[in-house]
Amino acid sequence: MAKSDLLAAEVTHRLFVGCVVHPASRTQLDVDPYAIVAVDLQSGCITAREVLTNEAEAAAVVTGLTIRYGGPARVSVTQLGPHQFLLPGFIDTHVHASQFGYMGSGYDLPLLDWLSTHTFPEEARFADPAYAAGVYEAAVATYIRYGTTTAVYFATIHTDSCCALVDIVRRRGQRAWVGKVNMDRNSPDTYVETTEESLRETERFVEYVLGNDQASGPPLITPVITPRFVGSCSAPLMQGLAGLADRYDLPIQSHLSENRAEVTWTESLHPECASYTDIYATYGLLRPRSIMAHCVHPQDTELRQLQKHGVGVAHCPNSNFSLISGVADVRRLWRHGLAVGLGTDVAGGCSPSVIDAMRHASLAAKVHIIKQHQEAVDDEACAGCNTKNTINDEVTPLTAGELLYLATLGGAEAMGLATELGNFDVGKSFDALVCDLQPRDSPVVHLRPDEAWATKLEKFIFLGDDRNIRQVFVRGRKIHARGV
Ligand SMILES: O=c1[nH]c(=O)c2nc[nH]c2[nH]1
């Protein structure tokens, strides 16, 4: 090839060479110290994943793939460093972009008081699109920096401000479901809509999102139907929203069974229904691609109903601790066959980080173990059972593999997107993080010589932060790189 042809040739594929970590399933975490992931930069999809045994073999496979993809001028090779690894991008299945401004404050109140004291007054300010854009710009940049490649956003009731959020997410290249919030009852005068307004404005928002997609390939941004929760949505509004979800084939998100006082109040609003979950079922809001946040206090019958309708759950442990809502039990949700992802639930949760959500999920699972130990000790049936870290197969700590699964593939399953996202299977979108355990400015993660990869991953989960996320990719495109 002449030199001028070489210069003109376009790079069509990128190969990542080094340690690759991904959940093959809930029960299998693959950690491959010598592996290659190949990405077609046109489609942003993974075209090959090769698992090797040593560096020499990796070099030979790089050469073979380079020939297959048209030669060195068409292939860019990224060699990961000794403490770097590739991880699927994080999926935050429940986050209020509009609450970013007061995250980290107001945790002395339970849910319903917190909503009326902090949340509704702040969200009412989003009537001003300029104010909204300022908050959304900071929020989206932060979530991306922390490795969230896919976010399921609540915005507010204000359509123009919701459109501003969509524009920001689109410009920054993140994948997202974005929801205009619906509220037509039990809300302050300054932050409420009529039923008709709420439906009309939701349709205007949906048309805006669907009409403005400029990404090549399937859209990165999807409008999501977002009744805030039963307490703030009348039956006609819920029914109307279910109709919009049908008409536009859209996903749905809401809150379910977060706090005991909320459950009691909600059920009192609908004596015609058997339970909180049954209210959503009755008004048509439970289906595949519905995501219900929290599910802290459901009865078994409710979990069976969620499973029957194919609903996914956003587990939001930081929020459940911060608002003292209770502790959702992930293993119980799994036993009922539910798909579960993680939610930061900013600002109920006090961190924008899915790594933090993994840590809190670990603690939440341990609370169930501690509770059972405590009950056993109180019964005097189990003197000394604190010497074990498990009660039985159903009450055990979450492993590092399970935590990484919740943060990635579990979220994709809850969204009904597991054929496209969540790990590095060939054909899926390359939504990925280049993680670095030894960036120059992160003294917290200390590695001993010859630290095993299993230990390195645990340290990433329990000590890591945004400084350990070097690059962020969505559909093969780099959307963030650290300056340091
Ligand atoms: O954690 C929560 N955050 C909210 O904004 C909200 N609204 C209803 N229920 C809610 N729960």
TrEMBL record:
Its Enzyme Commission number(s) read 3.5.4.3
Would you name any one GO CC term? cytosol
Keywords from the named record: Hydrolase, Metal-binding, Zinc
Q: Does the keyword Transport apply?
A: no
Gene Ontology biological process: guanine catabolic process
| Family annotation (InterPro entries) | Amidohydro-rel, Guanine_deaminase, Metal-dep_hydrolase_composite, Metal_Hydrolase, Metallo-dep_hydrolases
Q: In which pathway does it act?
A: Purine metabolism; guanine degradation; xanthine from guanine: step 1/1
Gene3D superfamilies with a match to the protein in the record? Metal-dependent hydrolases, Urease, subunit C, domain 1
Tell me where in this chain the Amidohydrolase-related domain is found. 85-477
Q: How is the cofactor bound?
A: Binds 1 zinc ion per subunit.
Catalytic activities: guanine + H2O + H(+) = xanthine + NH4(+)
- Record-level Gene Ontology MF annotations: guanine deaminase activity; zinc ion binding
Q: Determine the domain of life of the protein's source.
A: Eukaryota
Question: What SUPFAM superfamilies has UniProt attached to this entry?
Answer: Composite domain of metallo-dependent hydrolases (SSF51338), Metallo-dependent hydrolases (SSF51556)
Q: Which cofactor does it need?
A: Zn(2+)
Question: Which Pfam families does the record match to this protein?
Answer: Amidohydro_1 (PF01979)
Please verify whether the record's keywords include Hydrolase. yes
Q: What does this protein do?
A: Catalyzes the hydrolytic deamination of guanine, producing xanthine and ammonia.
Family to which this protein belongs: Belongs to the metallo-dependent hydrolases superfamily. ATZ/TRZ family.
Name of this protein: Guanine deaminase
